[in-house]
Specification:
about 300 residues, alpha+beta, about 30% helix, seven-stranded mixed beta sheet
Amino acid sequence: MSGLRLFDVTGGSAAEIAARSAEVERDLQDVIEANMEAMLGVRFLASEYSTGPVHGGRIDSLGIDENGSPVVVEYKRGRDAGVINQGLFYLAWLTDHRAEFQHLVSEQLGADSAAQVLWSSPRLICIAEGFTRYDLHAVREIRRTIDLVRYNYFGSGLLALEPVAKVTAGVPARGGRRRPSQGAPIGPRGAGTADLRGMLDELVRGFGDDVSSVDRKQYRAYRRLRNFACVSHAHQQEVVVTLRVSPKGIDLAPGFTRDVSTVGHHGTGDLEVRLRTERDLRRAEPMLRMSYEAA
């Protein structure tokens, strides 16, 4: 069970709302499939997808995330180590049937989405009432991108989803980086931009063990279950980041922050932040943390 405790404090007194599991596994699957983009950052494609008579299985849910990665979602009402093995079985099938998956994406979302599927980073999301320490160890030994998510129902209408482990396949090791002097401006030819990107990388990864990244041609996305920061690859003289933060709640500063909710841009988020110095990065840190919490 989760260590999360929920209290109703209406009227000033605390009454604990007991956690419970789903009465029927399918009920959990139905509510997540109906709200998959809001809950997981994944666009729903298919439910109980048949893998054919030879393979003889059905994938609980198929989707594609906001970066174009194929996603297999498997559910278990209680604790069951088999959910990870089952999900890996289907993930292997998926990577061997790329054309079939892209055809499904084309049918549901259009040819443009199908052409941008990111096969370098297929994902497995396992959702269950709990996981053992052996499960947590096992996923770290498997060279696949896997999210373990614990669920709990509270009362009659509250569902909590708690990420408990994240592993990303092929993450490069991070070493030390040279830090420019405090407040040093980025030069006219972009000198120092790599250092600033490095400091940004160290900062956001330091928010928690659940942070991972994925690279697309246009941007690098930092994510938990969902993206919370997308760093553009297109800018050489500054670092441009979009965040999952409402611009309406931010005191926008020209040249530093901008509302891009109605402007075409790559990556997730409606708030654009432009970084030119280390001081800019420190100034942006509260917004980066806010976006991390929102994801």
